[in-house]
Design goal:
The chain has 72 residues and is an all-alpha fold. Helices cover 49% and strands 0% of the residues. The protein has three helices and no strands. The longest helix has 23 residues. It is elongated, with a radius of gyration of 26 Å. It starts with 19 loop residues before the first helix and ends in a 5-residue tail after the last helix.
C-alpha cells in the first residue's frame, strides 16, 4: 500500500509589535547623535570651536559644502 504524506505548509511567525517605550531611548540617542553631527559639520569653527586647530574643519569640509554651510 502506498502511503501518502502531505508536505507541511510553511507558516510565517507573527511579529509582535514593539512598544513605544522600547523605542524612545533609541530615538533620543539617534537625535542627540544627529545634533552633535550637525554641530561639527555646521558650527565647529571659529569662536564656537570645541576642538582647537583646523582638524575638524578639514574632516568635514566637503560635508559643509554639500549641505550648504559657508566655510570660507
Amino acid at each position: 500500500m502506498a502511503q501518502s504524506t502531505a508536505a507541511p505548509t510553511p507558516t510565517t511567525p507573527a511579529l509582535a509589535p514593539l512598544p513605544v517605550r522600547a523605542l524612545v531611548p533609541w530615538a533620543v540617542l539617534f537625535g542627540v547623535l544627529m545634533l552633535v553631527l550637525l554641530y561639527f559639520v555646521g558650527a565647529e569653527q571659529g569662536a564656537t570651536a570645541l576642538v582647537s586647530g583646523e582638524g575638524v574643519h578639514e574632516w568635514v569640509h566637503d560635508a559643509r559644502h554639500l549641505l550648504g554651510f559657508p566655510c570660507h
